[in-house]
Design goal:
By secondary structure, the chain is mainly beta. About 5% of the residues lie in helices and about 65% in strands. The protein contains 3 helices and 20 strands. The chain has an 18-stranded antiparallel beta barrel. Strand 2 and strand 3 form a beta hairpin. The protein is globular and about 55 Å long.
């Protein structure tokens, strides 16, 4: 069944994207267009290549991690060097847009070479505008990444767990932005496969199918009521796995733009997760998604977020994990070149399962500084602190990360 779903979504991506590739012309992102001097046909950082504009960039980072394996002690610390080249190509035909992207992250840990990694991601996406009230976005992704040793509850091996994640997603919108009612329907299908440490990771291979719909009903010029339904299916590929499950969420809330300084969305409701096999613990609980942006000044923004949802188990006895997350970020531009981002978050993870008694609280704090040394060159520094307290003392840890960065474009 899921193979047919994947094939159908893939065919939809190709079928709807084909008209976009005919008779295209270059397109520039809005942010870049705004910065382009008058009379320039190509914005800074973009290279015309036939019907496309290509935006190459590279980032360098030098950092230090004082607790690489998230251990209560003794800690393994290491400095590391990271190089991240990436490129984005975009084109447009009429109101339709399409793009392609590639990114690689290569990190070398000097005191622990086994934890060095090379991640990469390849993306393709398109926005198809059928009319002023009907539009479709489609995207495809292939990603290779690793899960650092100690970041999951699986048995720690001699190297990080590596996986590949491939899938497609889409979202269809019907209804003009100012209409009384409008609807969004979305879906995705992803396959995640682990490629090493198979004695411990084979049970984590899974296919994930997500479907959802959101209805917006305008009750005031700047306020919409929001009704949202979601359904997620998890299909584990190891023969005999009992982790296959179906999750449903029903949320009701409001989306508003009260003033030019305040916007937000708040949705509250219920979630339920049922396992196909007996012996696993189902979950029926409250759920929410909240995001509020407050801009007291045009150059100073506060973002408040909170959510409650389930996360998949990492195979250490728990059937699932119920997570509550609270966060705030303050972004401030001190000048046209200097900006800072301060962040704080608190995460509570409640592990659910027969005979499982584990609850974690993780606090995170960070500060990032960015300076545009030149139009094409950005320098930065950041420090973050993570502190996890668990009812199992062997699971406590503290971690500090220090990072110096440099990013360059054309």
């Amino acid at each position: 069944m899921r193979q047919r779903v994947y094939a159908g979504l893939a065919a939809a991506v190709l079928f709807t994207a084909l008209p976009v590739f005919a008779q295209t012309q270059p397109v520039q992102p809005a942010a870049v267009q705004a910065e382009a001097p008058s009379g320039m046909t190509t914005p800074a950082g973009g290279i015309p290549v036939g019907p496309l504009v290509v935006y190459p960039a590279v980032e360098f980072a030098q950092g230090h991690d004082d607790n690489l394996f998230l251990s209560p002690g003794p800690r393994q610390s290491s400095s590391f060097t990271k190089v991240s080249p990436h490129v984005r190509a975009e084109g447009r035909t009429g109101a339709n847009r399409f793009g392609f992207g590639m990114r690689m992250d290569d990190a070398r840990y000097h005191a622990s070479p086994a934890d060095s990694y090379t991640h990469y991601a390849i993306t393709a996406d398109t926005d198809l505008v059928f009319s002023g009230r009907s539009a479709l976005r489609l995207a495809a992704l292939h990603r290779r990444a690793t899960e650092g040793r100690g970041t999951t509850d699986r048995t720690v091996s001699t190297e990080p767990d590596a996986f590949e994640n491939t899938g497609i997603e889409g979202r269809y919108r019907y209804g003009a932005p100012g209409a009384k009612g409008r609807i969004e329907v979305e879906g995705s299908a992803f396959a995640q496969r682990y490629t090493n440490n198979r004695a411990f990771t084979s049970g984590a291979d899974r296919d994930t199918l997500r479907l959802g719909g959101t209805f917006f009903w305008r009750v005031m010029p700047r306020t919409d009521l929001v009704f949202q339904a979601q359904r997620n299916e998890f299909d584990y590929k190891l023969a005999g796995s009992t982790l296959d499950s179906t999750e449903r969420r029903l949320l009701l809330g409001v989306k508003w733009e009260a003033t030019a300084a305040t916007t937000g969305t708040a949705k509250f409701g219920r979630m339920r997760k049922d396992f196909e096999a007996g012996g696993r613990s189902s979950v029926s609980d409250s759920s929410w998604d909240v995001g509020v942006r407050w801009s007291p000044l045009t150059y100073s923004v506060f973002d408040f977020t909170s959510s409650k949802q389930t996360n998949e188990s990492t195979l250490a006895g728990a059937d699932t994990v119920v997570s509550k997350i609270y966060g705030v970020t303050w972004s401030h531009a001190w000048s046209s070149r200097l900006r800072t981002h301060a962040l704080a978050s608190l995460r509570n993870d409640d592990f659910v399962g027969t005979g499982v008694n584990r609850n974690d609280d993780t606090a995170s704090f960070g500060l990032k500084v960015g300076y545009d040394f030149r139009r094409w060159l950005r320098l930065g520094a950041e420090v973050t602190h993570h502190d996890r307290e668990s009812n199992g003392p062997a699971l406590n840890y503290r971690r500090n990360l220090l990072l110096f960065t440099m990013g360059a474009t054309l």
